[in-house]
Design a protein that fits this description.
Elements lengths: L1 E7 L2 H14 L6 E4 L4 H7 L5 H9 L2 E6 L15 H10 L4 E7 L12 H4 L3 E7 L11 E4 L9 E4 L6 H16 L4 E6 L5 H14 L6 E6 H10 L6 E4 L1 H14 L7 E5 L5 E5 L16 H13 L4 H16 L2 E2 L9 E2 L2 H23 L1
Parallel strand pairs: 1-2, 1-3, 3-12, 5-10, 8-9, 8-10, 13-14
Antiparallel strand pairs: 4-5, 4-11, 6-7, 11-12
Helix pairs in contact: 1-10, 1-12, 6-7, 8-9, 10-11, 11-12
Bound molecules: nicotinamide-adenine-dinucleotide (NAD).
Nicotinamide-adenine-dinucleotide (NAD) binds next to α1 and α4.
């Protein structure tokens, strides 16, 4: 099983190193090959997604990705900015379905910015369409306005669009995921204002008819944002477009205690995927050794489950993470009174120790 390891920038290198450490103790035939991406690749070769990195990603069975970006690249032409690497990978590999589970571990209810009773037992899944919408729609650019409120002035514009097949395939992904969970899908749109999202809603209803065992409801994105912080446990699977999903999944991250806890999987139609934490490169804490590596470690577990058909190994990682939290170890982003503050590396080491301890116990019981 070949894994392309793309650490990227900022805390990307620190957190991916911990996930790699965890993967290496699993005793699986994994071949890990590293390549630069984002700002690191731009520095090395003048492009954020060099051909060699893209080829490695195409050849691999799965991709483990850290994060890209740094404020120092903000002045570069857009095609050369680090963030173009992740957009390029999504586009070239057809990674249209983004899974972002938001689970609140019992030990972290106090780390959430919401009241503990609102998030205790939270387990929701946000499915974000990842290769369409206003992030990829053409045309886009800057020009002189010919109409609007200020004709003749400079303006910028983007294009929001979704085709029927794009909506149909993400709808099927959401309904099938719901069948493995609570059998409820909430489709988030802005059908009251946007033509694109009236069409989204219409197609969701059509596809939903093929899944009579799954309950479908619809919510405007503004209300969805409010409900996420008011009563997040009302959701099971939430499916939405690229831009709304980007924003809502970050809001959902805080329900879990920290964005450093939120893994993600981005899958193509054959379940080949790119696995990354939901956060960015966090330049504000990069190099300090305090980033939370658990989102990346949990992303590696998702990789084993979705792309490499290793559900037992994935469950072992998830149990090890739960064990470490139960021991009271916390990186600063999830720290609270009475728990033990640790750094990135110590947290990774603790997960490795928990895995080794579980293996020893299993061998003892079998013996
Ligand atoms: P960010 O997610 O990097 O950081 C937001 C806040 O969360 C910061 O305060 C940061 O310190 C904190 N944080 C993030 N991950 C953490 C972790 N693992 N442990 C502890 N704290 C953590 O978002 P941002 O600051 O808006 O963006 C920084 C850079 O990342 C930008 O260049 C942006 O474009 C890029 N970015 C990249 C990706 C990606 O690679 N997929 C995603 C989002 C943002």
């Amino acid at each position: 099983m070949k894994i392309a390891v793309l650490p990227g920038d900022g805390i990307g290198t620190e957190i991916v190193a911990e996930a790699v450490k965890v993967l290496k103790v699993l005793d699986l035939p994994l071949e890990l090959e590293h390549a630069p991406v984002g700002g690191a690749a731009y520095e090395a070769s003048g492009h954020p997604l060099p051909d060699s990195t893209l080829q490695l990603a195409k050849d691999a069975d799965a991709i483990l990705f850290g994060a890209v970006g740094d404020w120092k690249y903000d002045k570069l032409d857009r095609p050369l900015r680090p963030e173009q690497a992740i957009l390029g990978l999504r586009k070239h590999l057809g990674l249209f379905a983004n899974f972002r589970p938001a689970i609140c571990y019992p030990e972290l209810t106090h780390a959430s910015s919401l009241k503990p009773e609102l998030v205790a037992g939270l387990d929701i899944l946000i499915i974000r369409e990842l290769t369409g919408d206003i992030y990829f729609g053409q045309p886009r650019g800057r020009r002189t306005a010919v109409d609007g409120h200020f004709p003749g002035s400079e303006e910028a514009f983007d294009t929001m669009r979704y085709s029927r097949p794009e909506i149909e395939r993400i709808a099927h992904v959401a309904f099938q995921a719901a069948r493995k969970r609570g059998r409820r899908v909430t489709s988030v749109d802005k059908a009251n204002v946007l033509e694109t999202f009236q069409f989204w809603k219409d197609v969701m209803i059509e596809v939903g008819a093929e899944y009579p065992d799954v309950e479908l409801d619809h919510m405007y994105v503004d209300n969805a944002a409010m409900q996420l912080v008011k009563a997040p446990k009302r959701f099971d699977v939430m499916v939405t477009g690229n831009m709304f999903g980007d924003i809502l999944s970050d809001a959902a991250a805080m329900l879990t205690g920290s964005i450093g806890m939120l893994p993600s999987a981005s899958l193509d139609k054959n379940n080949k995927g790119l696995y990354e934490p939901s956060h960015g490169s966090a330049p504000d804490i990069a190099g300090k050794g305090i980033a939370n590596p658990l989102a990346t470690i949990l992303s590696a577990a998702m990789m084993l489950k979705f792309s490499l058909n290793q559900p037992v190994a994935a469950a072992r990682i998830e149990s090890a993470v739960a064990a470490v939290l139960a021991q009271g170890l916390r990186t600063p982003d999830i720290w609270s009174e009475g728990t033990q503050k640790v750094g990135t590396r110590e947290m990774g080491d603790a997960v490795v120790s928990a895995l080794n301890a579980a293996t020893t116990m299993t061998k003892t019981i079998k013996g």
